[in-house]
Amino acid sequence: MSKPLIMVVEDDQAVKNLITTTLETQEYKYITAANGSQAIMEAVSHQPDIMLLDLGLPDMDGVDIIKKVRTWSNMPIIVISARSEDRDKIDALDAGADDYLTKPFSVEELLARLRVTFRRLNYTSGQSGAAASVFINGGLKIDYSEGCVYLDGEELHLTPIEYKLLCLMAKNVGKVLTQKYILKEVWGSTAESDIPSLRVFMATLRKKIEKDTSRPKYIQTHIGMGYRMLRIEDYA
After folding, report:
1. Which end of the chain is more exposed for a tag (fewer CB within 10 A), N or C?
2. How many Cβ atoms sit within 10 Å of the Cβ of residue 22?
3. How far is 80 from 10, CA to CA, in rounded Å?
4. Which residue has better confidence, 122 or 212?
5. What is the pTM of this model?
6. DSSP collapsed to 3 states, the chain
7. Are 98 and 74 contacting, i.e. CB atoms less than 8 angstroms apart?
């Protein structure tokens, strides 16, 4: 897969210049939009591979753009916003954003987030054409057809809930999944009263797949928001 086409949705000219200059230095292709209406039109016309999205646009809220795009596209959306409250991050992630970068940000951090997203795009495209029956991430292997999980060649004995959680994380590798999203997918509920149960199951799952739970290698916690499965090369 060649370098992706990135759409930059940003109305602040200084920030837009910083992002586009950074992309140019890395020889990324990009298009820009200064408001939500233009962003949606450009997304439909050009079918970009990745969207970098500011939430505070002059004509509509960025969360609404995410919701609109998600009705027809699964392209990765990285939010770049001055909104730093957990509630804002959770709302964007629940709407379908893949990552959240808070302003002010460093060029190095932006490029790192893009590399992670690009690797995820490459992995997904490599699995297209036929349903992947096996997921491999470092020493972790999930055989979906057998319903078995292996770590460094040894089979792990997971409960049904632990297996569902692990599969959900694996099928969204590199993406932050909010607690609400996980509860809905695994339990069919979004009740906050179920969050303690989720935390317990995540803790027991980690004990089985992490050699050192104090330094998790596979599943990263985003405190107050949710969890993300890291690809091993991203972790390293």
Report:
1. C
2. 17
3. 9
4. 212
5. 0.71
6. CCCCEEEEECCCHHHHHHHHHHHHHCCCEEEEECCHHHHHHHHHHHCCCEEEECCECCCCEHHHHHHHHCCCCCCCEEEEECCCCHHHHHHHHHHCCCEEEECCCCHHHHHHHHHHHHHHHHHHHHHCCCCCCEEEECCEEEECCCCEEEECCEEECCCHHHHHHHHHHHHCCCCCEEHHHHHHHHCCCCCHHHHHHHHHHHHHHHHHHCCCCCCCCCEEEECCCEEEECCHHHHC
7. no
Q: Is the dihedral of CA 90, 92, 93, 94 positive or negative?
A: positive
Residue 87 has what pLDDT? 86
What is the set of domains in the chain, with CATH numbers? Answer: 5-126 (3.40.50.2300), 131-235 (1.10.10.10)
* Cβ atoms of residues 177 and 188 within 8 Å: no
Peptide bond into 76 cis (omega under 30): no
C-beta of residue 161 within 8 angstroms of C-beta of residue 199: no
CA atoms within 13 A on the CB side of 163: 15
Q: Could you give the C-alpha distances from 225 to 28, 61, 140, 178, 222, in angstroms and in order? A: 31, 21, 24, 5, 5
Q: Residue 23: what pLDDT?
A: 96
Which pLDDT tens digit goes with each residue over 140-172? 999 988 889 999 999 999 888 899 999 999 989
**Beta strand 134-137 with 29-33: parallel, antiparallel or unpaired?**
unpaired
pLDDT of residue 123: 61
